[in-house]
Write a structure and sequence with these properties.
The chain has about 325 residues and is mainly α. The protein contains 9 helices and 6 strands, in the order H-H-H-H-E-E-E-E-E-E-H-H-H-H-H. The longest helix has about 40 residues. The structure holds zinc ion (ZN). Zinc ion binds next to strand 4. It is found in: Membrane.
């Protein structure tokens, strides 16, 4: 005879733990980490190709050799604008890749005393699944053997819990979380803008190449390839940016999008304006800079490490 739902779910949970111990699927992560190094070089090669086509093959030479003053000035402004976006996307990339996404401090726990922590740990280990028993659940990471703040998730690539983890990005070879999410969003935004501008700058030369008209610049075949790369990146990144802006508007990470379906009132949504300010900071002058001020960084950490007072989200998703 089948047991109750509670017993079945408890049994399933224990089976998953055993299976997870014996078949560590995250061995695959080591491969992804190695792949990330290749992807970073791939990104650099693609950006380098487009930059070379704009600066050295088409509009750079026109700044000096253009037949009219209008053409020379137009090319100069185009090249400068492109180099500005190139610089901003590189800065954002470096900040995103080398910033710690948010570490849970050693010995952090959401209890007033050690005894409370031990009691809760024993309850979680030896009681039936507390989620199903309808009891509030304090999150504990089995892999780190440590308490886990709300919105933190275990990242199998870096082997630790990350505050407000969004995803592990193989393009930047780093986990994207609380402290580098702004840099990540600015990286994809500046890259998209640079690709749109490059498409506009390289488009006429590429069109001539396709229509087999006499080439106006150098290496028309390479300019055409750079244009295709720019269009492909611009289109795919645009969709990605729209998806992330929607999540910023409701204060939700990529992982939490799956959790949110099970929560009626999302406790972190503080209104669009405050949600945007949480990621991009309050002052408009800071919105376009990939780094965080020390004050905002500390505020984010204080928010992420304080016990949640609203409805608790019963999720333990690890990535
Ligand atoms: Zn962990």
């Amino acid at each position: 005879m089948l047991g109750s739902n509670k017993e079945n779910a408890g049994c399933l949970r224990r089976c998953c733990f055993v299976l997870e111990d014996y078949c560590n699927v995250f061995q695959f992560c080591k491969f992804l980490k190695q792949l990330g190094k290749v992807m970073a070089l791939f990104v650099a090669a693609l950006i380098g190709t487009v930059t070379y086509a704009v600066v050295f093959l088409t509009h750079g030479p026109k700044v000096v050799e253009g037949s009219t003053a209008q053409q020379r000035w137009g090319s100069a402004i185009g090249v400068l604008a492109f180099l500005f976006l190139d610089g901003m996307l590189t800065w954002s990339y470096v900040v995103c890749a080398f910033t710690d996404p948010g570490r849970v401090p050693d010995q952090w726990m959401p209890f007033d005393s050690e005894e409370e922590a031990i009691t809760e740990l024993q309850r979680q280990r030896y009681s039936p699944d507390p989620k199903l028993a309808g009891l509030p659940r304090v999150r504990h990471c089995r892999k780190c053997q440590a308490w886990k703040p709300d919105r933190a998730h275990h990242d199998s690539m870096t082997g630790r819990c990350v505050l407000k983890m969004d995803h592990y990005c193989i393009w930047v070879i780093n986990c994207v979380g609380l402290l580098n999410y702004k840099a990540f969003l600015l990286f994809i935004t500046y890259t998209c803008l640079a690709c749109i501008l490059a498409t506009g700058l390289l488009g006429p030369s590429s069109l001539n190449f396709v229509l087999e008209k006499p080439a106006q610049g150098r290496m028309p075949g390479m300019v055409f390839v750079a244009t295709v790369i720019a269009i492909a990146f611009a289109v795919s990144l645009l969709g990605f940016i729209i998806m992330h802006l929607r999540m910023v508007a409701i204060n939700c990470s990529t992982i939490e999008m799956y959790e949110k379906r099970r929560v009626a009132n999302w406790p972190y949504n503080r209104g669009i304006r405050r949600n945007f300010a949480e990621v991009f900071e309050n002052e408009p002058s800071r919105w376009f800079v990939p780094t965080l001020t020390l004050r905002h960084r500390q505020w984010l950490l204080d928010q992420a490490l304080r016990p949640l007072t609203g409805p608790r989200i019963e999720s333990d998703a690890d990535v």
